[in-house]
Design a protein that fits this description.
39% of the residues lie in helices and 15% in strands. The chain is globular. The protein has a 7-stranded mixed sheet, sandwiched between helices. The chain is α/β, with parallel strands linked by helices. The chain has 12 helices and 15 strands. The protein folds into 2 domains: 142 residues, Aspartate Aminotransferase, domain 1 (Alpha-Beta Complex); 244 residues, Aspartate Aminotransferase, domain 2 (3-Layer(aba) Sandwich), CATH 3.40.640.
């Protein structure tokens, strides 16, 4: 009667384990201020343009003439049109009905699996965001684990021996901060089209790309409209972690087995959801205005300064790392041969610093460690000072 695949999940989620260790430490050291560079939650408030739009939308709901009840399940036309126009500025042509408004990338990455049969194998490039694996384990789906490492910059190339129908690609990557070049991503698009696979492209961190030779969207690549779905978030871009809003792009030209995935997703959303609230969608639309984009870029610049603070410290110490420059995560080699959880305990006990053990992102993450750059700037600076003192 029950889904027994839940028995195949690991005993507990990575961030649950971290929380347990942190809570135990605080119970023994009450009142200690921890420098939290672990979970990728933002520390800055929503920008003024978004807040003003949210307030105005709340006022709309107080008047009969401007009140909104159920919203269109696939997203309000005003927001779908706004997002399509945002893509057009980067040379990507989308029709608004190829854009689907969601409650966030994490939700959509799980829900989108409804489009695929349980027999479809899923390839996950590891180290990887744990939910990619867990969502497919819950569905009883075969998982192809594609390892990456320092030797390829955590950016593996496709191989025709890869036997998978769903291809998870996250760029800039969580947890490694590595970013696929245009040629590297084109190789994956070409592979997907040859194979008849579908890329699930997680673009949650594209706004952190500084090098404009790097692609922000998979749809900048030739052939992507026939093999890719792009899943995006306003969480790390505009601070919507607690507000929950994102969007998914499914081209009308994406078909498999005589079925159109855009049409399938319309049916899925109109069956399984009642849409995203008017208030949140108005706030989301404000994030794409010129004023909103300017304010968001200021916040992203703050997080990028946090990244530089951390990478400067790692440079002084002499530790290998990647990420940070075009991504909000810094991925480093643990010092002195420590494994990931030993280094976690060392930083917590000796420096009151909380990071994320690489082993939690897959077997090839063992021996590595992730820092998030979304923390408070003063805490990040102090963490960098303590890292230098402990390891320099």
């Amino acid at each position: 009667m029950l889904n027994t695949h839940y028995k195949d999940l690991k005993d507990s989620y990575l961030f649950y384990n971290i929380a347990q260790k942190v809570n135990a430490y605080l119970a023994q050291h009450p009142g200690t201020h921890l420098l939290r560079l672990g979970i990728g939650d933002v520390s800055q408030p929503l920008c003024a343009a978004v807040i003003d739009a949210l307030h105005a939308a709340v006022d709309d709901q107080a008047n009969k003439e401007t009140f909104h009840g159920y919203m269109p399940e696939c997203g309000a036309p005003f927001l779908r049109e706004t997002i399509a126009a945002h893509y057009a500025k980067r040379g990507v042509v989308l029709s608004p009905d190829e854009v689907f408004v969601s409650s966030g990338a994490s939700d959509e990455l799980g829900d989108i699996l409804d489009l695929f049969d349980k027999s479809a194998a899923a390839m996950v490039i590891e180290p990887a965001y744990p939910a990619y694996v867990d969502a497919n384990v819950m569905a009883g789906r075969q998982i192809v684990h594609l390892s990456s490492g320092r030797e390829n910059g955590f950016l593996p190339e496709p191989d025709d021996s890869i036997d998978a129908d769903i291809l998870y690609i996250c760029s800039p990557n969580n947890p490694t901060g590595a970013v696929f070049s245009r040629d590297q991503l084109q190789a994956w698009v070409d592979f997907a089209n040859r194979r008849g696979a579908v890329i699930l492209f997680d673009a949650a961190y594209e706004a952190y790309i500084e090098d404009e030779t790097l692609p922000h969207s998979v749809f900048e690549l030739d052939g992507a409209r026939t093999c890719a779905i792009e899943i995006c978030s306003l969480s790390k871009t505009a601070g919507f972690t607690g507000t929950r809003l994102g969007y998914t792009v499914i081209p009308k030209t994406l078909e498999r087995g005589g079925l159109n995935l855009n049409a399938m997703w319309v049916r899925n959303r109109t069956t399984k959801t009642n849409g995203i609230s008017y208030i949140l969608q108005k706030g989301g639309a404000a994030a794409f205005t010129d004023e909103g984009q300017s304010q968001i870029r200021q916040q992203i610049a703050l997080y990028k300064r946090n990244a530089k603070t951390l990478t400067d410290a790692l440079d002084r110490i002499g530790l290998w790392y990647c990420g940070g420059h075009n991504a909000p995560y810094v991925w480093l080699r643990c010092p002195n041969g420590m494994d990931s959880w030993t280094f976690f305990d060392f930083l917590l006990q000796k420096g009151q610093i909380v990071g994320t053990p690489g082993a939690g992102f897959g077997a090839c993450g063992e021996g590595f460690f992730r820092f998030s750059t979304f923390g408070d700037p003063a805490d990040t600076a102090e963490a960098a000072r303590r890292l230098t003192a402990l390891l320099g």
